[in-house]
Amino acid sequence: MTSPLNTPASDGRWTPRLWGTLLVLCAAMFLDALDVSMVGVALPSIGSELGLSTSTLQWIVSGYILGYGGLLLLGGRTADLLGRRQVFLVALGVFALASLLGGLVDSGPLLIASRFVKGLSAAFTAPAGLSIITTTFAEGPLRNRALSIYTTCAATGFSMGLVLSGLLTEASWRLTMLLPAPVAVLALVAGLKLLPRSEREKNHNGYDVPGAILGTASMLLLVFTVVQAPEVGWASARTLLSFLAVAVLLTVFVRVERRSAGPLIRLGVLRSGPQIRAQLGALTLFGSYVGFQFLVTIYMQSLLGWSALHTALAFLPAGVIVALSATKMGAIVDRFGTQRLIVAGFALMITGYALFLRVSLDPSYATLILPSMVLIGGAFALVFPSLNIQATNGVDDHEQGMVSGLLNTSVQVGGAIFLAVVTAVVTAGTPENPSPQAVLDAYRPGLIVVTGIALAGLLATLPGLRTRRPSRSVVVAKSPQQQEALAEPVPARD
């Protein structure tokens, strides 16, 4: 529900309170993305001080991914049912507390537990925050502008996390854990005053407890299995049985959702072509980039001998391009439509990945690395806001949290799955006691897989170019009762 205090003026200008609302939501999303990237550089220092093995260190990253990716579906629907403002603020408070504890503990298991709790809280703030935007800003130019700023903050947070972690780790790895805490507290205090009060979904048909249990269990098991597969083996009995269990859980989940009066995910939403393309785009966009960043980070630090800060600065141009595009993307989306920008962005990303295949053990940053970073930054600036706009356009307010949770799940699951695949490809091609050149040669198949993932994203989103852009907003995949109330059919919108 849109608060009068948070309604744009008749001429489209935003009030200070409306800007404040967006700033609070952007701060939370910035922290979520920052936390994902910032911990990576600090892992060697953490392992040294706490005496943790490599496999244990992996769970400092994987614990966050497990909580985040496994509970997003539940987080999105909870925001719809219990109130977006309430869910967002409670989860943000938990995030701040977990950040504080993570910087103070002296035990590996406790640190992993704090990371899981942070991921869990982010699984509630992310869809709640996105749905607050989509229900506060009217669909069209106003929402497109807000979403372009919001999603740019996420991409900027991810990029800045690399730089900040390089700086903070020089002093202490604990600072990388503690930094989000005061920022989250400030956002929480501001949110108590600025966020519009939202009504809980009225006339819903109870809580889909079986769906919530099955959906959460299947996502948790899927993420856990993918994260562990490179270590225990993709063809091991444990991995295969886990994937079989995931398939069974998802099958039962779909059957339950079809029969539920108030499902965790209304499956009719996925009958929309633009919605499916948005989910596949999110899956491949982040899946390819996470794999790329993983390989390039190791390449720069292990083979080129660059410092953590040097490596972070190498990625910075991409983040700068995304940040500078924040206030412009809304107008660009209004002019060209989401589908054209998604396709153009994937084309840029594929080109950037392909160019990186030329790297050697003695590369020129300006001619070999920088062009890829610029192209990838431009791709993110075009694709990420467009995917969020396309996924949330035409969806009723009471289902915005559900769709937001679904989109964020695609992002996290795509990152987890494709990172594991890229890691497996590189590991399989690396000989024992390899020379630096042999290691680099083993990286190239992984980079080819990354490029192939982005190409799959392009192919999955290309059919949307055939869809004629409508002149007005519509609601996609309505419930049967709502469809009966329509006077005439309306074409789906990209």
From TrEMBL:
GO biological process: response to antibiotic
Lineage: Bacteria, Bacillati, Actinomycetota, Actinomycetes, Kitasatosporales
GO cellular component annotations of the record: plasma membrane
Keyword terms, alphabetized: Antibiotic resistance, Cell membrane, Membrane, Transmembrane, Transmembrane helix, Transport
Protein species of origin: Streptomyces lacrimifluminis
InterPro entries membership: MFS (IPR011701), MFS_dom (IPR020846), MFS_trans_sf (IPR036259), Sugar_transporter_CS (IPR005829)
Pfam family, one: MFS_1
Protein name: MFS transporter
Transmembrane domains' residue ranges: 21-44, 56-75, 87-105, 117-137, 149-169, 175-195, 207-227, 239-257, 278-300, 306-329, 341-359, 365-384, 405-426, 446-465
Keyword Transmembrane helix attached: yes
GO molecular function, one term: transmembrane transporter activity
Sequence segments annotated as region (Disordered): 473-494
RNA-binding found in the keyword field: no
Subcellular location: Cell membrane
Membrane topology field: Multi-pass membrane protein
Residue intervals of the Major facilitator superfamily (MFS) profile domain: 21-469
Alphabetical list of CDD domains matching this protein: MFS_MMR_MDR_like
